[in-house]
Design a protein that fits this description.
- The protein is an all-alpha fold and 253 residues long.
- The chain folds into two domains: 16-113, no CATH class; 118-244, Cytochrome c-like domain (Cytochrome Bc1 Complex, Chain D, domain 2, Orthogonal Bundle).
- 51% of the residues lie in helices and 0% in strands.
- The chain is elongated.
- The structure holds heme C.
- The site of heme C has 28 residues, from helix 6, helix 7 and helix 9.
């Protein structure tokens, strides 16, 4: 095949870099546009839509965009020889498929503990504090209640879902959520009557909970109702003790 790098149509030689740039321009510009959309567009979606993408999602999407752009850059740059036989074509498709899908699955397993069995997570992150707190953490990680499907506790390395607030400082924040209500009572109310008062979004700058759900300022209604029936009084007390001691800064707990 004719390599156009050094032979321009008029016979004069065009700088190689310009030729190369022309070949990889498409994927590079698409990746830049994709990244702009991910980091500029997604975080500014209207809060009323109730869709929020946390840092891990943005990272994941970015990796996917950069990864696929790199793939096409490599393909167009030249070093990859095109397969000659049907078998080689099939093998390269399988290889690319397992590398990309495998990479994504590996990222998911590494990043999101909810894909693991919660027991392994509990052992890995190690519980500290009083007996009640330790038991409360087990309740939190219990798949029966599924708290980590929606809540992350970044300070404890519990990287769960992002639909609810990060509970890293839930105990401290509970002190100011509802004037006249103790932190313990607020936490208890959040669990037993979750829609009584809504957690403000961090970006709203509010610290108190909001009696009326305002989608621009609060999280959507997702806390599962009916925990009272599904949890024993002991489990509830342990869970409140665990949450009460989440004070934010790493290691402070
Ligand atoms: C389906 C998703 C979902 C599940 C499952 C879930 N939560 Fe929530 N949680 C939310 C959302 C969304 C909010 C914020 C809206 C609100 O205040 O009701 C919230 C709020 C909270 C709050 C109040 C935080 C604050 O600072 O005001 C606490 C505490 C809490 N959840 C603990 C738990 C615990 C413990 C469990 C498991 C028993 C759990 N959540 C299960 C979605 C969920």
């Amino acid at each position: 095949m004719n390599d156009p790098v050094n032979t321009a149509p008029n016979g004069a030689s065009t700088p190689a870099w310009r030729q190369r740039w022309r070949r990889v321009k498409g994927p590079v510009l698409s990746a830049v546009a994709g990244l702009a959309l991910i980091w500029g567009g997604l975080p500014s979606l209207p809060a009323a839509w109730g869709v929020r993408f946390g840092m891990p999602y943005l990272m994941f999407f970015s990796l996917a965009v950069v990864g696929s752009a790199l793939f096409f850059v490599l393909l167009n740059w030249g070093p990859i020889r095109h397969p000659r036989s049907a078998l080689a074509t099939f093998a390269s498709i399988v290889l690319v498929y397992s590398a990309t899908v495998g990479g994504m699955v590996a990222f998911g397993y590494w990043y999101y503990p909810q894909f693991e069995t919660p027991r392994a997570t509990a052992a890995k992150t190690g519980a500290t504090g009083s007996g009640a707190e330790k038991r409360g953490k087990d309740v939190f990680l219990n798949p029966q209640f599924n708290c980590f499907a929606c809540h992350t506790i970044e300070t404890l390395g519990i990287r769960g879902g992002q639909r609810g607030p990060d509970l890293s400082a839930a105990g401290k924040e509970a002190e100011a959520r509802k004037p006249g209500l103790s932190a313990e009572d607020y936490l208890r109310e959040s669990l037993l009557d979750p829609w009584a008062c809504f957690t403000p979004l961090p970006a709203s700058g509010l610290t108190q909970c909001q009696a009326v759900a305002d989608p621009a300022k609060t999280y959507p209604q997702l806390m599962p109702p009916g925990l009272k029936e599904r949890m024993t009084e002991g489990q509830l007390n342990d869970l409140v003790a665990f949450l009460r001691n989440l004070r934010g800064a790493r290691g402070e707990r």
